[in-house]
């Protein structure tokens, strides 16, 4: 009898092992060809288009956008927090989900969620990641008031607070591990609660993720995902045709017809909640070297020399448009359909501004990451030619990685500005251009200091609870921004992908690439 039981046990274990192997065989290894990677995967410090593609697989936001039922993501849905309520004008409470695990096996606690939003990490004096301040200016305190509840108190009424937690601000990190390694190391070896865990990260070549089978949201549908840097479009599409890659990003406009001609590949594009820009370096600092663009009249001349409407129509047809600065239809209360830029396309005005700048042919360096955004390489070549025709000595410094681009000297630098949904343009006007923004604070590539009148208005804007008054202050801030002209706003971003027909993948109106349960399957 004992021998029989032993034999049956071995047979059962063999069947179980065979079943597990079969299930793993059904889960594919996915390879995504991307144009680049950012230097960090720390949620706030690593906030960039290239990282946002990946972070949604590693982290869960406290609250998420309801992508499963709403392709616009305009409504909120529970995530690692199941409920939230406003207790009074200045107090919000959030109830955490039971049984959520981090990739290191530890259970997520209210203390972890509180630390994620804490003064110590992102908004206090000497915060570990001070860039988080731009999202948290209304915060007064964050506390785990019991095992299940996190309470956030604000200094002013903040009815949009929960919306802010769908941004990288809301990606939950494990307190003990984060503090033990610090944000720099965390950015290289991140741990989250998302459906996939990081097993390899080399910012010069690839990120590899593996399925996290203790994921609270269900079994991840992929065995692994590798995001591999392939800077050139021609190499990405060749790899897709050869079956080397399963998904690729960034198809230039003039290559779409070619891509659509390949059997077994599908081209998909979606509007994104971000805007493509060229940041001007407004700073005249000895440590950054000579910078003719510090002269505002030269910035005016360069802006006036570009016919943005015609450029965007040529590149995108009806798929995108060129907005007046910060005039975005996805924040309707702040949108003015009649608004026009302060500096419009006008070659005579451009020549006049150039004369006022007393420009003497000094070299203007434009740092560009190759393939940073769809069609951007074509656009910057066109703009450089327009500026040369005007008499400006521009030099394109096109590099293959962000670390090479994000450093001085430069006169202009490519950038994108996310306006991830919070119901207002706060993130755009203040998060990207306020005194705590990356443009104002980052050591290697900061490019402006917001003027005192802009900062004073921004502080009033943040404290203002009356919507009509808030809109009025917002418009005054935009007027100052346009007066200073710290960037050339180009077009609403369009994200596109080429996908092997081996997969059915649900894309969203966002740079994020969702590969969790329910979003991708094998055909």
TrEMBL record:
Keyword Signal attached: yes
Subcellular location: Periplasm
InterPro entries referenced in this protein's UniProt entry, alphabetically: Peptide/Ni-bd, SBP_5, SBP_5_dom
Tagged with keyword rRNA-binding: no
Record key words, sorted: Signal
Pfam family, one: SBP_bac_5
Main location: periplasm
Domain Solute-binding protein family: 76-418
Signal peptide: 1-22
Protein family (similarity comment): Belongs to the bacterial solute-binding protein 5 family.
PANTHER family: D,D-DIPEPTIDE-BINDING PERIPLASMIC PROTEIN DDPA-RELATED, PERIPLASMIC BINDING COMPONENT OF ABC TRANSPORTER
Protein name: ABC transporter substrate-binding protein
Originating species: Devosia rhizoryzae
